[in-house]
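Entry: ATP synthase subunit delta
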Amino acid sequence: MAPVQIAMDFSWVFNSREHFVATDDTSVSGVAGRYATALFELARDQKSIDSVRADVDKFAGLLAENEDLVRLVRSPVFTAQEQGKALDAVLAKAGITGIAANFLKVLTANRRLFAVNDVIRAFRVLVAKFRGEATADVTVAEPLNDKNLDALKASLKSVTGKDVDLNVNVDPSIIGGLIVKLGSRMVDSSLRTKLNSIKHAMKEAG
């Protein structure tokens, strides 16, 4: 699906600092957190944070675009050997090498490739914290183009006072609008939620 090309004004979503002030929860936990921490520490020690971040972002992009790759990652039907062989081909074609490639292979060998999206998300949180940035999880109905992403980052920066790194998830089921989670708080301006609110209000009125 092609990125959304229309300009979007996100300032109305964040018209008050009270939405997000003092909510930068940058903790990571669980299996994904442990793997992400190991990856981050290795990348930091090797002074390769930027290149590793670029490679894992590239892999996340492939997952967002390729349903066959999603099945390979998530399906328990494939053995570790089958996943590993297919992953080698994907990484080679995408030009993903070095630390990121080796890490993805470790996830595969340990039968944890199904958690790769959560690991990447946690890794981004750690990188953002290291850089003094905030991290926001954003759910949209359709992909955003660069102009809209920049506008969203600017709106979030205006209320947090920090540069904001975005974890963008495309979920057509929200129909339109967006959901933004920053730290422990969330702004839900999705069309799905608005329609559900109207439906609930109509039931109560009836």
